[in-house]
Give the backbone structure.
Amino acid sequence: MGFAFVSGSPALDLIATVESRRHAPEDLLATPADLERWVQECDELPDRVTAGAADLDSGVRLREALHRLALDRVEGRRFTPAGLVVVNRAAAPPPPTVELSDAGLRLSGDLRAALAQVARGGIALLADRGTPVKECGRPACTRLYVDRSRGARRTWCGMDACGNRVKAAAYRARKQGEVTR
Ligand SMILES: [Zn+2]
């Protein structure tokens, strides 16, 4: 499985690099090279960064702190102080630089800058109480996403990843019921 960028925020996409958190967690960031690839694949971060073991530690620490704070937000609690310390610290270094050319926008910076960008985005998202952050309606998924749909009626992190799977399972269950009846 590759990385998915469907949450509507790099901070939530970073959190989702642990899949199925509740039941069978799988960590997609096992090595520094995985973190380099994640940064490279994220549209809102620099194309090329190099990461060492300490960078992976920082990335994972930021990810877990963001997860804690996002859950606090989803469940309407006060933010966990230890999570605030980690995220605010990660957001302090200068973010990547942006340049415009005919080829479009170019972001550059090192891994610290990339993580600062992720942390800043997470802070902006979590501070804005008007933007709904939800957990995917497929229980095994556990992905958090920003619901920007009209009336905030979105139920799944993504229709392909989860919505269709839940609908197919419900259909199979109905079929099964008809057979055994
Ligand atoms: Zn999902």
The chain has one domain: 10-180.
